[in-house]
Each structure stands twice: as C-alpha cells, then as structure tokens.
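#data-curation
PF: Archiving a pair of folding outputs for the training set. Convention for this channel: one message per protein, sequence first, structure tokens after, nothing in between. First:
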Amino acid sequence: MAPLGELALSVGCEFEFEAATAVAAVVQVAPRPGPGVRVVREQWTSGVEHHGYIDLYENRCERFVIDSGRSRLAYEAEVLLTEPADMIEPDAPETPIAALPDEALSFVMPSRFCLPDELGSDAWRLFGELAPGWGRVQAVVDFVHGHLEFAPGASNPWTTAVDAYRARQGVCRDFAHLAISFCRALNIPSRYVFGYIPDVGVPPPDEPMDFAAWFEAYLGGRWHTFDARNNAPRVGRVVVGRGRDAVDVALITSFGPHTLTGFQVHAEQITPAAAR
C-alpha cells in the first residue's frame, strides 16, 4: 500500500455496568503512544476516581471501581497518525533463533492461549517447506484466514488456539492466536495486538464496530503487522495493547462479579484539530 499523509481519528468506547457491590477493575482502552502516533487529546467520563499506570508490556491501563448499582465509564481520544497505512515488506527475512534479541525470545514460547508446542507438527507440515521470511508468515495468515470462519459468539474467554483450530471458527482474537501459534512453532517471534481499526477505504462491516485483534511478527530486525482476520492492508490502526496473547491485554479485568449491560466502540476519521 502506498504511503499516506497524516490521518486524524476519533476513537473511544463506552461501558455500562450493573453490580450488587462495588468492584475494583482495570481497563485497557487508551491508545498506546509510539513512533508515528500522537494522542492529541483524551477524556475519561466516570463518576468514580480512577488513575492510569503502565504495565509490564508498556501498555496504558486505567484502574477504577465499578460502583454498586448502575454505572457508566466512557473514554474518548483524538489521535494523529503520521504513518497510518500497513506497510508491506515482502523481502523481510526471518531471524535465526540464536540471533534474536533477548526481549524477543518470550514471543517464541507457548503462552496461555497460543500453543506452538501442540500445533508444531501441523505448522511444519503446512509451512515447513516454504522459504523463510515474509512470504511464510503471509502463508500462515492466508491459511488461518481460510481455515477459520468468523462467527461472533463462537468462542469464549477460555478458547485457545488449538480449540479454534479444531472448531474451525472464532472471532478476531482466535484468528490472531492461531496465526501466532503457527509462527512461534516455526521459530518466528509473534505477539498479540489489539486496538481500534476505522473503516477507512473499506466498506463498513455488517456487525457493530468492536475492538480488533491482529498480530506482529519479528522479521528483518523489527516488528511487522499481520492480520489473519481481515487478511488485507488497512489504514488507521490504533494500537491499545501488545502482549503474549489476549490474557496480557484484557479489555477489562474485574475483581468481583458484575454485569456488562452496554458496550460501544467507535473509530472514525476526523478533521485534525489544527484545521478546525
């Protein structure tokens, strides 16, 4: 995809809760700053005290308390992206395990939802004869995209990559977990990513907008974006969290019982603040 100019986006979400007693919780919904990403403004709307912190994977998290009864938490941000399009680098090579940086090694290991040890035989049978590099990772993406049927509600918070592989259906996190598992089995470091994807340059989907999950593979000395769910370059990805799998970047972690009674996500292109 050809490079594009700056892209301004409005992103955010809203939660509605009902709880019998007050419940401590953590949410991950704020964009993760990085090269090419600037949070121009942001706002939390809540009736309770809250504060942010940075977790072990350098993700932004927010701690708060879900009040007893009914309550609402909303987040809104304006984000400016200077490199909004997915970059394609077909000549990017794989890095031998012995030459990987130390911090990449954990992304070759099994994790709670990504199970390269269980899928290793299938990974080498399907992809072992392919030339190492970008093309082999793309072959994994193509396979997962074709093997799994996107089916909302087909998986649950405990579904692993192996479960999805056998069921042949899942949601975007299952597509990411399965592709990551195959890549790790091939000794390609891969990490889970989730965030916002606006409908820039593509038709709006039939289902309501939600957070999206994709993954990054370590090739040619840096991390590259791959998306087994969409299997097409996209414009405007806004990363919220990165980790070994979905357990490291949970949208909401609560420390007690509650009911999520309402949930909305939005991400759309806007006029930059400087031009308004």
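PF: Second:
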Amino acid sequence: MVLQEDIEIINRKASKKSPTGRFRGLLPYLLVSPYIIFVSVFVVFPVLFCFYLTFHKWNIISPMKFIGFANYSRLFHDHLFWLAIGNTLKFLLLHIPLQLVVSLFLAYLLNHKLKGIAFFRASFFMPVIVSGVVVTILWQQLLGFDFGLINRMLQPFGIKKIGWLVDPDIAIYSIAVMATWKNVGLYVILFLVGLQTVPPQYYEAAKMEGATQWQQFWHITLPMINTTIFMVVILSTIGGFSLFIEPYIMTGGGPLNTTLSAVLYIYKQAFQYYNMGYSATLGFFYAFMIMTVVIVQKKLIEKEV
C-alpha cells in the first residue's frame, strides 16, 4: 500500500513540467514564429483583404462602399480586359515555343566540352540577374523606330524602317523575343542539369548501332529529359502570364492597346484609375485562370511522364 502511494506521488511530480521543460515545449513554436508572422502579415492578410475588396468600391481616398457582385459582373463585360487576355495569349504562343527551342539548343551546345565553356555559360545567364528594367530600356533603344540600332543597321541594305514597337501587328511579338532573351539563361541551366543526367552509355550503344547525332538526340536525349521539358513549359507559362515590366516601359500598352497585358491592365485599374475593388476582382479572376491552366498542364505532364 505504501509503495503504491509513493509511486502515485512520483508520477504527480513528474507530470508537473518544470520551467525548463515548458520552454523546451515552446521552443519549436518560437523558432517558426518569425515565418508564421511573415506569412500572416504579407501573404494571408493581403489575400483576405483583396478578396474583401472584390465586393466593394474603393478609391483609397473615399470610404469603402459595398456593391456586392457588381465588380464580377463588370469583369465579364469588360472588353478591354479580355483584349488584354488575348494579348497575353498571343505573347505566350510565341514566347513558350521560342523559349523552349532556344534554351534547349543552347544547353545542348554548352553540354559539350569546348574551350571557354564556362565563359559562355556565365554569359547566357547574365541577363537573368540583370534588372528587368535595365534590360527593357536597353531593348527599347535597340528597337526604336527612328534611332533604334537595329533599324539603323538595316538601312544600308535598303530595308525600310520596321516599327518593332509601334506597329500593332508585330509589337507584342517583339516584346516576346525580348522576354525570351531576358529569361533564356535560366532555362539553359535547367536543361544543362537534365542533359548531364543522361547516362553516356546510351550514346555509346547508339553509336555502335550506327545512330546519327540527330537520331541520338531524338530517341535518347529528348525522352530522357522529358520531365525537364515539361517543367520549363510550366515555368515559362507562369512567367508569361506575369508579363508586366516589358509593355509597361517599352510601349505603355500601346499601340492601340495591342501590347496591353492582363497584369498591366490590372495595375492601371489600381494605380492609374484608382479602382481598387475592381482591380482586386480582376486579380483574383486572373489568378484562378492561371491556376487552372497550370493544373491542366500538370495533369497532361503526369500523363505523359
């Protein structure tokens, strides 16, 4: 009987946590608290506040006015927004295939052992780390109509000046070429990683069978880097949907709104027209659209892989 009472006393004492024990229990929460605070303040709260804005009319200065689903109704009748969506899709139709082909071609060349290969790898990656504003201003000078370097180089050959940024038919495609040049270095690195994972024994066996370089590339290289290709497609899609800096600086959305991207239009609604509620509505709808496209791509990728 006495022994049982002693055991109960010991258990009660052991169940009481000492200050050191309580601190150790709280330590994991203290360690992750900076991240939780950061995400709560800069991610969760802005998203919830933007969703709240979608049901209000607000120009920052005046008090918010609840308008229900009026912003959503306006969205589906906004011709300019759907024009911006169409411009973004035109950009993607050139940007994604061009990004894929150019980056894979450069990575294939850089995967060979050549003199000065480290210099070329660094050179191709350099535009990625340079400010997007700086790169855009540079290309703006290159593609200028009257004094652009490219048009001046074409004049001695009798070629008339081309309105790279002022012709409504080609302006968005000029921006697509520029954006590809800016981002291609990142995808070159990704493809290099994929190419270097291909076992060299496969190429040796193919050579013994008499396979040409093209046959080796088509039947060995491409299937082995299939996952990398699809990853580049997804990243290029997300990056293309985020098109903003290039049209904002180079054309301002012109000429005739032919380079007006969806993100640029959302920005203008918020900070040029001060339609904060409507801008938040456009942002939520656009984010949902991007998420849908990425999910569809992911399903197709998983099926192919």
